[in-house]
Each structure stands twice: as C-alpha cells, then as structure tokens.
Design a protein that fits this description.
The complex is a heterotrimer of chains A (299), B (218) and C (95). Chain A has 299 residues and is mainly alpha-helical. In chain A, 68% of the residues lie in helices and 1% in strands. Chain A has a single domain (3-298), classed as Ferritin, CATH 1.20.1260.10. Chain A has helices spanning 3-12, 25-55, 59-85, 90-99, 115-135, 142-170, 174-194, 205-208, 216-233, 259-269, 273-286, 288-295; strands at residues 244-245, 252-253. A two-stranded antiparallel sheet of chain A has the order 1-2. In chain A, a hairpin with a 6-residue loop joins strand 1 and strand 2 (252-253). The longest helix of chain A is centred in the N-terminal third of the chain and has 31 residues, at 25-55. Chain B has a single domain (3-212), classed as Ferritin, core subunit, four-helix bundle (Ferritin), CATH 1.20.1260. Helix content of chain B is 71%, strand content 0%. Chain B is built from 9 helices and no strands. The longest helix of chain B is centred in the first third of the chain and has 29 residues, at 32-60. Chain C has a domain at 2-53: Roll (Ubiquitin-like (UB roll)), CATH 3.10.20. The longest helix of chain C has 13 residues, at 26-38. A 3-stranded antiparallel β-sheet of chain C has the order 2-1-3, with helices on one face. Chain C has helices at residues 26-38, 77-87, and strands at residues 2-8, 16-22, 45-50. Classes of the chains: A mainly alpha (299), B mainly alpha (218), C alpha+beta (95). At the A-B interface, helix 2, helix 3, helix 6, helix 11 and helix 12 of A face helix 2, helix 3 and helix 9 of B.
Amino acid sequence: MTREAEFKEYVQGGGQVETGDWMPDEYRARLVKFIEMHGNSELMGVLPEREWILRAPTLQRKLALTAKVQDEVGHAQLIYRVVEDLGKPREQCLDDLVSGKSKFHNVFHYPTKTWGDVGVIAWLVDAAAIISQKALLKCSYAPYARIMKKICWEESFHILHGRDVVLTLVNGTDEQRGLVQDAIDRWWGPLMQFHGNPIAADSDPMVEWRIKSQANEDARQQFLDGYVPQIWELGLSVPDPALRKDDETEVWQYTEPDWDELKHVVTGHGPKSQERLDLRRRFRDQEAWVRQAVLADAA
Amino acid sequence: MSERAQRLLEIADDELVLGWRDSEWTGIAPFLEEDVAFSSIAQNEIGHARALYELAARDLDTTADELAFDRAPEEYRCAPFVELRLLDWADTIARRVLYEAADTIRLEALKADPDPELAGLAAKMDREEVYHRLHAEMWADRLRDEPRFRAAVDSLWGQALGVLEGELATVLADRMPAQLGWTPAQAAPAPRNGHSDGFRALWDEMTMVRRSIPGASW
Amino acid sequence: MIYEVFRQERKGQAFQHAGSITAPDDAFAEAYAREQYGRRQESVALWLVPRAALRHVSDFPDELQKSYHRVDGYSLKAKLKEARERAGTAAPRDR
C-alpha cells in the first residue's frame, strides 16, 4: 500500500492528524484551501454587519451585535493561525483575499438593507453556518477540529440574539414585521445556495479525506428541518412555492437553487463583493505601517 | 435637571460617543488580535455609558435607552474630543491613550464622591478600565518613537484637556509628560460647549433605526 | 512571535492547551490572550509560553516486554487458587 493510501485508510478509520505529522500533498492543499476560505468568510462576514452596530436602536442590541461581530473576527484569527501552521502565512492569505485570488462564502457578497436583515442573518444565516461547523468537529485534522469546538461554543449566543431580534420585530408593529418578511424574501436564495450544490458523499474528495464529514445536501436538509418550521410558526412565509417536506421520503422538496448565481457570486461578482474587498484593501494598505511597527520583529 | 443627573449625562455621553467611534474600527483594525481587543474596549465604554444612563434615568424618570437615543443633538453633553471621526490608527490610538489618562483622573475623583451610588459605580468602571490602561500603555510604549503617533498626540492634546474641568485638567497636564515620555505641544483646552461639525452626522446614523418607527420596541 | 496559550477553566483543574496567538512581546501577548481566551470569563487563569520555549516530545518505545511495572503484568488468580487449596480455605467454587 502506498503511504498515501495508508494515510487515507487511517483518516477514514477515524485517525487524527496533527500539525507535524506527514500528510499527502493533496490533503494539505485541500485543507489549506478549505480552511482559508472559512477564515476569509468569517472576516468578510463582519462587513455586512458592522454598519448596523453603529445604527443599533438600543444599548443592549449595540452591545450584542458588537460582541457577535467581535466573535467573528476572533474566529478568523483562530482559523488563520491554523492555516499558518499548515504553511501559508496570514499576510499571504489576506493578500489573496483582497486581490480576489481566494474566495469567501456567497452570503457575504450581498447587501444588508434594514434592521430586519440583522435579525435574519443572525438567526438563519448563522444557523446555516453552524450546521456546517458542527460537522467539522469531526475533521481529521485535529488543530482545526479543536478550534471548531471553541467556535461552536461562541456561536451559540449568535442564534439566540438573532431569534430575539426577530421575535421582537414580529411582535411589534406591522412595519417591523414587514422588515423581517422582506429580509427573508431577499436572503432565501443565498441561504439555499449556501451549502453548495449536491455532491454525493462518496464522490466528494473532501469527505474521502475526512476533512468534511457531511454531504452538502444533508446540511441543507438539516437546515430546512430545523428552520422552516421556525419561520412558519411565526406566520412568516418562505418565497418558494415548491417548498414542502415529502411525507413519505421525509425529504424537503424545493425549487432548484441557481447554481450559476452561486458560482458568479463566489468568484467576486456579487452585488457587494468588490466594494467590500476595496474597503478591506484600503484599510490594510493604510495601516501597513502599524504592522511594520508592531509585528515586524514578531516574524 | 439635578446636578447629579447633569454630571452623569456628561460622562455617559462621553463614553457612549467614544464607544460609538471606537466601534467604527470593528473589522478594519490593523490586525485581527487588535480588532478583537479594541472591540472589547468599545463594548466596555458602551457598557459604562449604559450603567451611567441607568443611574441618571432613575433621577429623571425615564430609561437608559431614551437618554442614549431620544434626545435632540444639542442636548448631548459629550466633549468634542470624543466626537471626532478618527479613522487613522495613529490618531485613534493617540485618543485612546489621552482619554484613558483623563478618564483615570475623573474616575479617581468620582470614587471619592460622597454619593455612594456614584462612588460605587466609579469603582466598578475603574476595575474594568485596568485593561484599557494596559492596552493604552502597551501601544504608547510601542509607538513612542513613531513620528505619526507623536504628531497625533500633539494635535489632540488641547481636545483631551477639554474633557476635564479646572483642577482635574491641571492634574492631567502634570501627569501626561511622564506617561508619554515627552511633553506634548502647548495647547489651549477645548471647551465642552457645543458640538463638532461631525456630531450631527453621527447622531443621524446612531438614531436612524430608532427614529424610523418612533416608540417601537427593538 | 507565536505564543501557546494554556487555560484553566476552574480553580483546581489542570491547565489545558487552548490554542496560539501572534504577538510582538509579552505585554501584547497578555492583552490578546485575555481577549481570545477570557473575554467571556471562560477561564480563571492562563499560561502564555513562546512557542520556541516549548519542547515537543513523542515516540515512547516499548519493544521488550515491560509489563513488570504495570498492573497488566500480574495475573494472580491461579496462584491464589493453589494457595487456598493448600490452606484448606478454598471456597466451593474454587475446587
């Protein structure tokens, strides 16, 4: 058996891999790309939300939203540390992010328009992300699995915060209810695309290497199972007339998401992709002197 | 309005507006670890504002949120220093360092106040500020010889002095050179009356969601 | 510099490895570790160690039958049975 085949058998049997262990080039490359995209997403996820910190309508909401976004930055820091230990320095990751060379998740390429978006993002978008993150607790690469534990623990308040914002709006004026429904109508498409197009687990190299342990469609079904009832019980609607759970198969049926849109968006052509990357690039360049002054001797 | 309520609002408004300005750095600080640290400081500032507003709210028969968001711009009592939009790191850190020094002096006085509620709250805030001072000190140490930082401190010094009144301002002027490692350029203290040009825009953004549906719960 | 962070969740518990942070010196490392591993009061104490100060040790060979100093090296059932028979104190089920 080749060393690579042995390694594959090892991880498929539940074996854990540490930083200094030998690993096949393909495993390392896939790991870096996947984890880097996660880090990029946490970082870019800050931008749609930060403007609402400034506009939060109560002191408690302002504190909660600041803390939520702070968590996301903290997660990015943890995640890039893992990538760095795999061989790609953080500065290079950030260079590739702002130059458009590397990607981040679709949902962070879209605009946020109202306070309703703030609630819906924390409630539904974070929920979709947490489903994927929980599956990553079983990642064969141990340093990543370990930070996922901390990340999942911190995310637990995000969903509660989101639900609290939504419930307050839904119990408020008609106009406030309208904010939530409008946000759901706009975010539903990106949410359905979030977990990626269905690839069978046994054809997915990421599952083969045990980097991912859950097929894309399973994640989507789990999301629908958990959250469509929550949406419907508030008297809100989902903008997909075909959405229903088949009684016999227990599988959710829905209108096929636009996979072309997904591809188009993650390659940097989303409504806000360039504007947000430009903002990152601007501040990164402006503060290069700070990193020089503080981190230069830290290499 | 009682003298106590006025004092509380002055400090609360300083903390709210500075916390608001500091939270503008969320996601765009020079590097990630600092982004997280700076965000905690911003949260503490808002948290302090909230505690101060809650105390004042009882005196004024209202709520903390109403005090924080529902006053007209001219009713806020914050110092122009905290209103400045400083999206350059040297300026922002200079403000942090100077504000912490001023706030320390203010809290020292407040901890000795005969009013037990004020003194008690000041003691709590002071304990949280220990971390802010640690943070300010480590940055001042690092940037001591950086021309940008020195220039920023010099240009903000007058505004910083304006945060405190009378004798307290003198204490700040006496202490600062030792803390900084140099004496900032002479500057007249900026008075606390009125607001800077940018305040109206800040207030507009800060209150826009709340004003969109008056009286609603959020 | 990379600092490894160990955290103690509650007094009396062992310090466990929590992760690593990047910082230029001890002062920054303390501030950033407090943030990353203590802003929610999730730790009562932290140890910070520059990664370069840590020595990684692994590979513990056990080639030549060292059960003499482990519990699994001692099986006394048969000897105890024989000793009880000699003394006439064997329990019915031993016969």
